[in-house]
């Protein structure tokens, strides 16, 4: 058998070209969807996404058979990108309190620019459980840094901060059209309440509702 016979067969050029075209189409769909979802929210018509991406509806549905498939893909990418940037910013910030407040500022600023992301965040907390775990672990890290430095009010838990983030996201959604930027006032009020100078004991958290039969 010759060396040529032993070589691994190469993929036919036509097949490689089709695969490259499919990858470009998928990337174009995701890029366009990111822009359209950010502008118009989760309820947007996918025909607008197909139009902006320059592909036909058949091509869009081959890559994403259901609109929710595309939405989750886009939101997971956006969510992960935002959290990665926030984590890098916090790691580069020596002051624990500045790192915590910077996280909230960055979170809400990002959500104010992305209607679909804030709709998802307020509805489910995160596009997926993996994203939620990543976010919660990061918030816990920020909380621990502030608590260890004596900067955080006694009794504040990671769950409190996660819920605060979600609640402020709802404020972004509720005031974006009528009072843009109003969330900044609410954020400042909320952050002031987290400071260690507030020594009044916090109410005990309500027990989880019993979901059993």
Automatic annotation (TrEMBL):
- Quote the DNA-binding region ranges, renumbered to this chain: 45-64
Which residues does the UniProt record annotate as the domain HTH tetR-type?
23-82
- Pfam families from the UniProt entry: TetR_C_43, TetR_N
* Residue segments, region Disordered: 1-22, 194-213
Return the protein name: Helix-turn-helix transcriptional regulator
Q: Which UniProt keywords apply?
A: DNA-binding, Transcription, Transcription regulation
């Amino acid at each position: 058998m010759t060396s040529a016979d032993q070589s691994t067969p190469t993929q036919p050029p036509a097949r490689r070209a089709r695969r490259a075209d499919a990858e470009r189409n998928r990337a174009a769909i995701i890029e366009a969807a990111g822009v359209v979802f950010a502008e118009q929210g989760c309820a947007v018509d996918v025909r607008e996404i197909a139009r902006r991406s320059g592909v036909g509806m058949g091509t869009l549905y081959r890559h994403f058979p259901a609109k929710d498939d595309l939405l989750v893909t886009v939101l997971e990418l956006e969510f992960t990108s935002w959290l990665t940037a926030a984590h890098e910013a916090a790691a580069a910030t020596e002051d624990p309190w500045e790192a915590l407040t910077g996280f909230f500022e960055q979170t809400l600023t990002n959500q104010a620019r992305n209607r679909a992301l804030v709709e998802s965040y307020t509805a489910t907390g995160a596009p997926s459980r993996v994203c939620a775990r990543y976010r919660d672990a990061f918030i816990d890290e920020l909380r621990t840094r502030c608590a260890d430095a004596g900067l955080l009010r006694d009794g504040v838990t990671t769950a409190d901060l996660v819920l605060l983030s979600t609640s402020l996201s709802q404020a972004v959604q509720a005031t974006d059209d009528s009072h843009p930027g109003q969330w900044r006032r609410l954020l400042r009020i909320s952050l002031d309440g987290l400071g260690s100078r507030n020594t009044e004991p916090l109410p005990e958290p309500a027990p989880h509702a019993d979901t059993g039969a």
